[in-house]
Amino acid sequence: MKIKHSIALFIVILSISNAFAQDKKFKVHTVAFYNFENLFDTINDPDTYDEEYTPAEGWTSKNYKKKLDNLSRVLIELGTSESQKNSPVIIGACEIENRRVLEDLTKHPTLINKGYKVVHFDSPDKRGIDVGFLYQEKHFQPTSYINVPLYVYESESTSDKKDKKEEEETEENVNYDKKTKRIYTRDQLLVTGLLDGEEINIIVNHWPSRSGGEKKSSPYREAAGRLNRKIMDSIIKINPNAKIITMGDLNDGSYNKSVKQGIGAKLKKEELKKPADIFNPFEQMAKDGHATLFYRDSGDIFDQIMVSEEFIPKDKNDYSTFKYWKAGIYNKPFLIQKTGQYKGYPLRNQNGVPGFSDHFPVYIYLVQEVK
């Protein structure tokens, strides 16, 4: 995994795709998203419901270290190949307890030489889980960042008395304020910065869960999709040529209303007609039967990365600025449960033993021609 010090911009010759002329040189950057599945430290925070991840409940310093070992192994290899040796320059993350755990991860011996820095805000989620943003400082420099809260409220139309008892046992109920009926969930994190000098905007998401059932909870994710769309429209209003990436664990598939109508994501690049339009490469992957998580033996892609129209080459040979190339799901064998009831599922935390995650990470490649 060592990179020669003389390579400042990580320039590679792309001979693996006929989309590029073979006498041209390109630099390739990986942008990734990963649900870290309960990356908690061992300290009991009195303001959140984190008791499950304390030494009193078996979450020891040894377990925490093992979790960091596992995640760092994934991140250093994520999106790499024979022609792409560098780990992701940008990583969106979710299910992290606080800034401290991200700092610990970036200081892990496996990752420390990559020079990752952190953008993080505490979310109002009562379990204490947030979204976060990691970036390689030598390639990406943030110019602004903000957390945008999602306000969703329970209404009588989305529940009835019969469901109340069941709701009390759900994760989402932990985040429910009985007085205001607000459901506290994760903020959406917007980071704007320069990728090797070129401005891009990234939104990191972790939308409300399906606790209480998909149908009942769908309005909350639909609201999250609309908020995402509002953020993107605000960016485009300021800069009509803005480049936007939105990523996250959406707790919905690419076909759900929150994504198709809320964001307005498109299946095909040819459907993009204006700068505000968004292409979702993971919709076709879902149609082809791929998955980032499984539930009751059914797979789906809740982890998605989408790009705005400005990332799509209007001329197939024009890569003078960073353009979207292709996307992938990182599901190497070491990330997969080999035996038992959950054979074939992501290798998650179980029976007191830290795993990797109950989600596979996803990534996209951005490429730019080097003159």
What does this structure look like?
- This protein is α+β, with helices and mostly antiparallel strands and 371 residues long.
- Helix content is 20%, strand content 28%.
- The chain has seven helices and 18 strands.
- The chain has helices at residues 61-77, 99-106, 161-167, 171-174, 214-238, 257-263, 281-287, and strands spanning 11-12, 25-39, 90-96, 116-120, 130-136, 140-148, 152-153, 182-183, 188-195, 198-206, 244-249, 265-266, 278-279, 293-295, 298-300, 303-308, 323-329, 362-370.
- The strands form four sheets. Strands 1, 2, 3, 4, 5, 17 and 18 form a seven-stranded mixed β-sheet that branches.
- Helix 5 (214-238) runs parallel beside helix 6 (257-263).
- The longest helix is centred in the middle third of the chain and has 25 residues, at 214-238.
- It is globular, with a radius of gyration of 20 Å.
- The two termini are 26 Å apart.
- The relative contact order is 0.15.
Task: Give the gist of this structure.
The protein has 371 residues and is α+β, with helices and mostly antiparallel strands. The chain is built from seven helices and 18 strands.
